[in-house]
Amino acid sequence: MSGGTFLGMPAFPEAAAAAVRDTRLRGNLRHATGTIRAKRARAVAELPDWAGLRAAGAAIKDRTLRHLDHYLERLEEAVTAAGGTVHWAADAAEANRIVTQLVRATGESEVVKVKSMATQEIGLNQALEAAGIRAYETDLAELIVQLGDDLPSHILVPAIHRNRGEIRDIFRSEMGRWGRPAPEDLSEEPAELAEAARLHLREKFLRAKVGISGANFMVAETGTLVVVESEGNGRMCLTLPETLISVVGIEKVVPTWRDLEVFLQLLPRSSTAERMNPYTSMWTGAADAEGADGPRDFHLVLLDNGRTDALADTVGRQALRCIRCSACLNVCPVYERAGGHAYGSAYPGPIGAILTPQLRGTVTELDASLPYASSLCGACYEVCPVAIDIPQVLVHLRERVVEGGEATVRGRRTTIRPARGHAAERAAMRAARWVFEHPAALRAGQRLASRTRRLHPRRLPGPGRAWTASRELPEVPAESFRDWWLRERGNGSGGRKGREDQTDQTGQAEQTERAGRAEGGGDR
Amino acid sequence: MRVALFVTCVTDTLYPGTGRATLAVLERLGVEVDFPLAQSCCGQPQFNTGYRRETEPLVRRFAEVFRGYDHIVTPSGSCAAMVRENHPRIAARAFGGRRADEVAGAASRTYELSEFLVDVLGVTDVGAYYPHTVTYHPTCHGLRTLGLGDRPRRLLENVRGLELVELPGARECCGFGGTFAVKNAAVSAAMGADKARGIEGTGAEAVCAVDNSCLMHIGGTLARRGSAVRPVHLAEILASTDGGTATDGTAGGTAGGTREAAR
Ligand code: SF4
């Protein structure tokens, strides 16, 4: 029992439609995201140089990603010199195998975990469970998800879809099966809920010999890893166990401490709307043998799992700048209504919609539907502290879905075939393009629509029903603007710009060049 | 100053009253406006759905059709954003060279109506009269891609008789999103319903925006809910005068124009 799985979930539109009907879920999300939205805006507005910081964050990440091999090697050298061991994992299976072997080597069958997106991504808890090892989540929200045999639905607050009453019920019914039970008379007061979790977790911290974490940043110049958190559970997991295993995506490296400074300003304000997060833990390699604090044995598992494929994509690679602040989730109107589970991966919301199809590909129906899980309103780009142009990447990935093309898959340049189920749309887009290239045909179509306008149905069959289920159709006017213009102003009045078929041969560059020149010269 | 109207395919086909209103406002301010008949669509629906290659000929066409004009004015925030933000990128990748320069040039001369009025003409009072309570919805591409800021509001505030009321949650997307409206119809409808509730709550008679595609979604949602609030394009408010109508009597001095029939 270590949480469910995202495998085999339906495509985004179906999952989202079900979530939209769940009024309690929508209430929980609206309340939670609305609150944090306003707070973030205030925290960001406090800094007069936010735009500069944001640009610096993006630039540092881009520079690091351009020379990623170099910085990863420096990191490896520094970690090794400080007594740690570095492992390289090409994919989820390899990372899980490495971690399982490392835990087995300690002889332990329990580990405590700091909340980590990378280990969610690779399904580490399930892999450990299959090997007979129990992983205890120690972040409060992650604990709620684990006890509820649930899936995370938010990067920062994995149990954001739960309200206090639901949390109390989960604690009361499930805590006892994992360790110290919750008090019988537990109320839904936040302080009481936190106290129950504190007591429940404390015995696990004190017993654990192995800790597993991710990292927010890795500083290449000294081999230092950084975790920022709010609850102190991270500090416990990072310092009490004898063995610490950190699973970290390769894009989390930053070259120097000066670079780190930028992100330690960007991250807390964007994620929790705090000037500074309560706990910032940093560690470099393993503790020296004699009398030092902290784990004696430190392993860093560097995870690729699709990241170098994304790096090869000149438009898509900006997704690797992400510092997992979750600001884009909190402002996203689609996330607010669809909930995190509909995105079918550890990464929900706008960042998930551009990251998952790059890490996992666009082969499954779910993954191919993710780039469309957006109205392209741009609220995500506006708040992103590292200026990831999420709408641009979404459109880029839509192109990969419908038109296929070149992409790097597991390190190889591959020609991707268009996803299935887009044939009718493709035909319609081609037809529309032809019409738009022939305005005379466009006008003929407009006239036909105008003449038959009294016959148009109010509700459409087939795909059009998706529009008319909730909206009236616009009424087709008696006359298009074009026709009005021709009637009122047409007939070459005052040498106005000529015929609509003038650039109809756009297919041939030569002809259009000539037509264009003739047009330009003929004006006035 | 040579000015061309880029009316957009949606306004041309479904909301001609907005096109006539745009023309009326500009001509009232002494601008001579041309309507090149070879224009069609900026390619936004194709591009945003992933059909970049189907967009390329339309990008080329746009630059050719509007070659030689000093300013290209359009009553659509999202089409202006498509031209300004995406046309140069598409052209740089597809054509390069002189043709890409030409596309970038056309893009830089393209203005959404309120930008043209405020920034180029330097006008915020266009002499309009519109005795109604209106709430304003800033559409996403106008707000975030173009950075229209308070330009539309400043224009509305100078309309005589008009009472502007605040829309709660104004900056949140209405849920249209082009093909998003049908591909993710449930979420789109939920966003539309929330937007419609917000609009109804203001007590306004009309909701104004700078984009007819968003207004088609908002208006369609309001109409289905049996709401009395009318969707109205900014141009149609700015075209209205106390002489009644400035748009040949067809758009009407009242809000909505041809859209009224949709109620
Ligand atoms: S994409 Fe940007 S806003 Fe979203 S989680 Fe990543 S860093 Fe934060």
Uncertain regions spanning at least 5 consecutive residues of chain B: 246-263
Percent helix range of chain B: 40-55%
Overall 3D shape of chain B:
globular
Secondary structure: number of strands of chain A = 12
Structural class designation of chain B: alpha/beta
CATH class of the largest domain in chain A: Alpha Beta
Q: Quickly count the domains of chain B.
A: 2
How many distinct folded domains of chain A?
A: 4
Roughly what percent helix of chain A?
Answer: 40-55%
Total count of helical runs of at least 4 residues of chain B: 13
CATH topology of the largest domain in chain A: Rossmann fold
Report, as a whole number of angstroms, the end-to-end distance of chain A: 77 Å
Main sheet: strands, sense, barrel of chain B:
4 strands, parallel
- What share of residues are in beta strands of chain B? 5-15%
What's the total count of β strands of chain B? Answer: 8
Spatial strand arrangement across the major sheet of chain B: 2-1-3-4
| Strand arrangement in the largest pleated sheet of chain A | 1-10-7-4-2-3
CATH homology superfamily of the largest domain in chain A? NagB/RpiA/CoA transferase-like
- Helix/strand order of chain B: EHHEHHEHHEHEHHEHHEHEH
Mean pLDDT of chain A: 90
CATH architecture of the largest domain in chain A: 3-Layer(aba) Sandwich
Organism (chain A): Streptomyces pini
GO molecular function (chain A): 4 iron, 4 sulfur cluster binding; metal ion binding
Biased composition (Basic residues) (chain A): 450-459
Keywords (chain A): 4Fe-4S, Electron transport, Iron, Iron-sulfur, Metal-binding, Repeat, Transport
